[in-house]
Amino acid sequence: MTEGSAALPLLQMALRVEQDIFVIRQRGREVAMVVGLEHQDQVRIATALSEVARDLLRTTAGADVSFHVDAGADGRFHLRADLAPMSPLPDGRYQPQSGAVSRLVDTLSVSTVEGVTVVRMSRRVPASAPTPTPERLAEFRTELGRTAPASALDELTTQNGQLIAALDEVRSQRDELAVLNEELAETNRGVLALYNQLTEELEETNRGVVALYAELDEKSAQLRAASESKSRFLANVSHELRAPVTAIIGLGRLLTDSASDPLTDEQGRQVELIRSSAADLLNLVNELLDLAKAESGRIEPDVVEVDLRPVFGQLRGTLRALATRPNVELVVEEPRGPAVLRTDEVLLGQVLRNLLHNGLKFTERGEVRLRASQHGDRWQFEVTDTGPGIAPELHDRIFEEFYQVPGATRVGGTGLGLPYARRLVTLLGGTLELTSAPGEGSTFTVSLPTGGA
After folding, report:
1. pTM greater than the 0.90 cutoff
2. Does 122 or 451 have the greater pLDDT score?
3. With contact defined as beta carbons under 8 Å apart, do 385 and 366 qualify?
4. Which domain of life is it from (predicted)?
5. Rounded to whole angstroms, how far apart are CA atoms 320 and 314?
6. Which residues contact 145 (CB under 8 A, 6 or more apart)?
7. How, if at all, do strands 366-375 and 328-332 pair?
8. What is the pLDDT of residues 2-53, one digit of tens each?
9. pLDDT digit string (tens) for 313-372?
10. Which residue from 108, 161, 165, 140 is spatially nearest to 34, judged by alpha carbons?
């Protein structure tokens, strides 16, 4: 589209008398139709034109009206209508009496073009409309020039028809809205019924949950009572068993004493068997008593500064006698100094002794190794063996009381060493974890805080 063709109006009209308002409305609708605006937009711009024309006729005694097609900055074409008043606008501004006019068009403003003040309005041309080339604009002008303005009565009849159509559309929309409102009300009733049903089900579920919690609390109380009874039983039985077992050991020692009458070889062998069995029984009784103390909470850690090197040296000396299998080596690595942490030295020694003893019992060849290392604010103690290993599904079970892993390497004992060790580690504020797999040995890792629990 050339600049000249853009400046040339599609149609020019004069607004001088009231009848011209009807003509401007009619011709504005015709221009909008020729350019390609949809029917509703044709009615909108025609109505806006008639309202502005009526205002200008009353305030400025009329105006010159022209229609143009412009290429907008948005890449769309716009139908523009300019109304140049015959006399200056009051205060140089234009405010239509009805604010609805600005909603009928895309733009409504007062502009000064080459020293002339005009009231300008525009409406976008649909993208589906034919492109307004200079040739097509010339055809538009020719087509508009062949049509003659209708009478005011004809235009009024047309307006009435448009009004009736608008009323019918409003009525149709109102009926559709009524149907939608009824459907919405029905949906709301369904939602309310569903909400009430879900509320009742939720309340019923809550009652069930409350009852379940009450039952769980009752069961927990029963379990606590049973656990306390078990701990008391273990403590009492351990105390009752310790005295006769100690007496048996003492009597066996007297029988083998050099001051007593000499025994035959067979008698000596039998007495030594009695003493050995009694010592094993005493160890089992002591384990039961220690576990009972741990469960009842009667063990209070005595947290002090502990140097690990003497502790490891004592473990190396006392457990070396237990490494009786020629194919198993006990290795207690010297911790790197300074190896100090705040903990209970006695309880830590019991934990490490139980883990080393456990490894020596179940390892037939290879080694059982103890090492310690510091990681930030925690110390880690690892007891590693080359034993048969433990399947992953049994990692938790071995910390259960009286449980031992089944297999060819099963040895005697109560199965209380590992549960007792984990309870002591918990009292010290740490954790005891297991890493193991069948055929790959086992590693027990104790992690303790450097500064104590």
Report:
1. no
2. 122
3. yes
4. Bacteria
5. 10
6. none
7. parallel
8. 444 446 899 999 999 998 998 899 889 999 999 999 988 999 999 999 999 9
9. 999 888 876 667 788 899 999 988 788 999 999 999 999 998 998 888 889 899 999 999
10. 140
pLDDT band at 436 (very low <50, low <70, confident <90, very high): very high
- How far is residue 349 from each of residues 314, 375, 423, measured CA to CA in Å? 9, 20, 14
Instruction: Supply 283's token pair.
Output: 């160890």
